[in-house]
Amino acid sequence: MAGAAMTATFLAVIGGASLLAVTARWLRPSDRLPSLEGWALADRSLGAGWTWLLLGGTIYTAYTFTAVPGLAYGNGAPAFFAVPYTVIVCPLAFVLLSRLWDVARRHGYITVADFVRGRYGSPPLALVVALTGILATMPYLALQLLGIRAVLTAGGLYPSGATGDLVMVAVFAGLAVATYRHGLRAPTVISALKAVAVFVSLTAVCWLVLRRFGGFGAVFDGAARALGGTDAAHSPLLLSPGQQPAYATLALGSALALLMYPHVLTAGFAADGGRTLRKVSAGLPAWTALLALFGFLGIAALAAGVRAPEGSAEAAVPMLVDRLMPGPLAGLVFGAIVVGALVPAAVMSIAAATSFVRNVYVEYVHPTATPKRQVRVAKAVSLTAKLGAVAFVFGLRDQDAINLQLLGGVWILQIFPAVAVGLYTRWLHPRALLAGWAVGMATGTYLVVREGFSSIVPLDTGAGPLEIYAGVAALVLNLTVAVAGTAALAVLGVARGADATDLPSRLMAGRRPETGANNS
């Protein structure tokens, strides 16, 4: 059981998050009438500092901070795919997010499906983009609650039975209410606490680990022996040649998929300009360094002889923290990780609700809905999404949520051609993009399920099986179908919808198109 000092510190961090959420109403106050843009995007008013905090706090989730070290604890080197993957995200965000922001701001787009609707003039394509985003987001939201439960359980802060469930609901309830009232401003202000708490607590844990073991080399050698090797150079802490294709494709595919998630795009759209997003993208590697240190703690847990329960490797780092740190500092770490779940969970619920309202409710159910009504419906859907995530966690096995999130990563990657490619060329026909999306979704789902919900799948190349990320394999097939279908539809003379985005319809060499947007 947790000591009184640990519990007090943990509650202080959670209480601080709740108090900050109350102050969200004063973050860039506006005299504008209630609107979905104001609730979901904070009126696109966030400067570089707030955007860096929100975008980093949204991308780097609590589940990431427990799953990556858990994977390192159980499998060694493959876990560190998350480091190059998040490094690749930075230049992609620099290029894609700022361009997408310019178009969205000029035309009043709030979701990425809005952009697809305007770019291709295709309501069905916009609908599948929106539904894919919602479908991929919901299990990701549930995983944030699983991350909270893993941390509380490892720290002895999660009582057994219904009492423990009530503890987690109470932790989540404060932010749910604040998000309902203040929209994106609530997770924005809490992201500041997340950054301070996580950076400070992680620095303290790493310092204690290095002082105990005498340096990085000693930690890796100790972990190597725990995995059955003699030293770091002769152990699973290094990739074998057969693991390298899976490692590379998983890093690349995950990076391409991340920027398609609605919650990441929502955080990006809330910035006050394209230049702000470029500045923030250049500063995101600081969060990547944080993730690398969390992965290192998984290695340290091996070296320290931590014995996580079977099937619960994500508990390894919380157990290491409980072993190494005094109660108050351990409570700070656990509180920081829990707050780390609250920020992305709130943004995910907002993003899913906004996509539903803009691209399903207004488009197909109530086209004349007033801005006030849109906000009211979005608030209700956001709250329902949170309640659904809680019910999912309590009603199903943890592995079910993990399996669905693995599928979610494969699914969300299939909208990459319509969104990212569409930012630079409109050559791909919307009907071909729909066909490619359908083939990619079906193929990716089949490959993952066939391998027992493993996102790494073997492909027969004639020279032996080649293991790669299922999402990349499905994306390649998706693009192939889209390109071939576009060529066939062009021959048949099938018309396409009008482009309302003012972007060039072809890639322009040696010319920078005017956006007409304010990039300040």
Bin the helical content: over 70%
Determine the mean pLDDT.
85
Rough shape?
Answer: globular
For the secondary structure, the number of strands is 2
Cα-to-Cα separation, first versus last residue: 52 Å
Which runs of at least 5 residues are low in confidence (pLDDT < 50)?
509-520
Largest sheet: 2 strands, antiparallel
Tell me the Rg in angstroms.
23 Å
Structural class: mainly alpha
Q: How would you portray this structure in words?
A:
The structure is a single chain. The chain has 21 helices and two strands. The chain has helices spanning about 5-20, 35-40, 50-60, 60-75, 80-105, 110-120, 125-155, 160-180, 185-215, 215-225, 245-260, 260-270, 275-285, 285-305, 315-325, 325-365, 370-395, 400-415, 415-420, 430-450, 470-490; strands at about 455-460, 465-470. A two-stranded antiparallel sheet has the order 1-2. Helix 5 runs antiparallel to helix 13 and helix 16 (about 325-365) packs across helix 17. The longest helix is centred in the middle third of the chain and has 39 residues, at about 325-365. The termini are far apart. The model is unreliable at about 510-520 (pLDDT under 50).
